[in-house]
């Protein structure tokens, strides 16, 4: 059988390869960046007319979002420095679509983010979560943030290696903390908000604690527990205490499956927590 055209590989001379990379960097990539961030027709409309445009107005966004995945795959074929120069901008532009009020746009964006992290690998997890955290900061975006971080973590689970999640612990825990104990948690109980926003109806924070506990290393155990201890230390709310208990339950379940922390280290940590003998965990109680 004849070799498929798609499977053929042409080896270019060094000078020609350099020329191809230069054209991609200076012409193709800027065009792709502009395509991803181009204003849709609905963006150019007055807000009154935008409402009248109906559900069809998100079609342009939905078509443009997957371009980001194609760009990432292209960048992975280029020299490493080209990938590093462009990946931050691509992730930022992609995460911006999560600010959309349309469920369909946010859903397609999350699916694309999942495919991107699978393609890039778990070493880019912190960078992706950081971009989401910077962009999604107010109002309903906070609900979207927690839901989206969870979807990316779930997609990355099969790829996670020792130490991959350690740099992400603080970012993820902060999002969970806001979701469970902040204003966001109160909004989840408002039927009107929860009814209009799919992400507000779900609670992904507990499962994120489980994932963190399952894949972090010993050095990050404190970072997982301290924020919970701080929340429970200044509340008398029965509801908050129950949430804290549920978080701890998921942490324990995750640690049981953790292959990166030895049984001895877990026993020492458990004893230190119970006996209040870990300085970093109970320092403020001694003041």
Number of E-state strands: 0
Instruction: Give a quick account of the main beta sheet: strands, pairing sense, barrel closure.
Output: none
Oligomer category: single chain
Mean pLDDT: 83
Helical content (DSSP H or I, runs of 4+): 55-70%
- Binned strand content: under 5%
Summarize the structure.
By secondary structure, the protein is mostly helical.
Write the layout of secondary structure elements.
Layout: H1 14-37, H2 41-44, H3 47-52, H4 59-64, H5 67-76, H6 80-96, H7 103-120, H8 125-135, H9 141-156, H10 169-181, H11 183-188, H12 191-196, H13 198-201, H14 205-215, H15 221-233, H16 238-256, H17 263-274, H18 279-282
Helix pairs in contact: 1-6, 5-6, 5-7, 6-8, 7-9, 8-9, 9-10, 9-14, 10-14, 10-15, 14-16, 15-16
What key attributes describe this structure?
SSU_processome_comp_20; ARM-type_fold; mainly alpha; globular; 287 residues; UTP20_dom; U3 small nucleolar RNA-associated protein 20 domain-containing protein; single chain
What does this structure look like?
The chain contains 18 helices and no strands. With 287 residues, the chain is mainly alpha-helical. It has a domain at 161-286. It starts with 13 loop residues before the first helix and ends in a 5-residue tail after the last helix. Mean pLDDT is 83; it is low at 40-44.
